[in-house]
Amino acid sequence: MPYLVIEHLEEISNWVWLEYRHASEWWKNKLIFTNVLPEEREKLAKLGSVIGESVTRFPFDRSKIIVLDLQAEEELKPEDIDDDTIIVVGGILGDAVPRGRTKEFITSKMKGVKVRHIGKPQFSIDGASIVAKLIADGRRLEEIEYEENPTIKLDEFSEITLHYAVPKLDGKLLLTPGLIELQKRELGYTEADEEISDEELIEFFEGKRELA
Amino acid sequence: MPYLVIEHLEEISNWVWLEYRHASEWWKNKLIFTNVLPEEREKLAKLGSVIGESVTRFPFDRSKIIVLDLQAEEELKPEDIDDDTIIVVGGILGDAVPRGRTKEFITSKMKGVKVRHIGKPQFSIDGASIVAKLIADGRRLEEIEYEENPTIKLDEFSEITLHYAVPKLDGKLLLTPGLIELQKRELGYTEADEEISDEELIEFFEGKRELA
């Protein structure tokens, strides 16, 4: 199984943490964080390997690196990926309007690596990690479903729209577990100490229930 | 500054922990542990980068790797080491009688890497890490002092002999901080909750005082 590198480029906010945790559920022990500050190492070590150096400077074998970049000309294919391939996802949230930041922070600094895209939509960090995993497992990009700007109903009066694409598997949105709960809390819908289980969230997304 | 990789091959006993901590004092953020189990990641992340994969399988750039191996033909020299060289120390304690375990566990599994020795004596993990750092900083092997099988007086009736070599700098033994305290505790000389400071230890080794 190949490696997934998340180049860590932001503070570990609650939102970032949930995305990283979701990526680790898919990549397990093959997840590596790069560009990690000493004081962040222990926290991120809960989820994967942690390397202080940036992926752009660390002495990886560059012939094994594939950087995912919206601006790449070729799409990522299963046959690009070997057992020790390193797939790099830029850890940048909130880039709903593509601004070429992966190219700015990563691709332009790494000679000799492959660059591939995973389609036109803008995915979150965990979304891109999941799409990469599905392709590493043998699926082709055109077989992978996703929903752009999904809208999540919170109650009969309100909804949240996520301004990026979320991958789907067997018709189900693979939304970041805990993210809607976090948003509800931040919007004042939920008390801070109310926990919503992943099961409840899945049923919520399937339209089977409303959240308390 | 180059990287030091410690291939983690033992449980994290108190002794191993003290050696790792000492190595991290010398290598700071350039220390990387490889072959780390998921449940050990957080603990070792206190001291450096942590990678789950073994150094023998991880996709490092092998042209940048130097494995320290007693059985190497060439000695490690400052001119071998670039800014992104990866120096690998096998994390094996207690090999007082050389048994070629570095070759068995590391060198034989890594094609395309450089192999170098740091002299005939058998160093501990931290000792080898320090010798490598001194050479990376420009010293030549023949300039580095060490003491083989140093004997440490505990009180007027007893002493501890360490069956390996300990490097010296400016005439001072660079002994693992806390190690004598640990040994005294295990031998029943010290209560578990008595702490001995590094300063006391240094003075002890300089013969200026006895430990309480």
TrEMBL record, chains A, B:
GO MF annotation terms: protein-arginine omega-N monomethyltransferase activity
Designated name of the protein: SAM-dependent RNA methyltransferase
PANTHER family associated with the record: PROTEIN ARGININE N-METHYLTRANSFERASE SFM1
Domain of life: Archaea
Alphabetical list of InterPro entries matching this protein: SFM1-like (IPR007364)
Signal peptide: none
Organism taxonomic ancestry: Archaea, Methanobacteriati, Methanobacteriota, Thermococci, Thermococcales
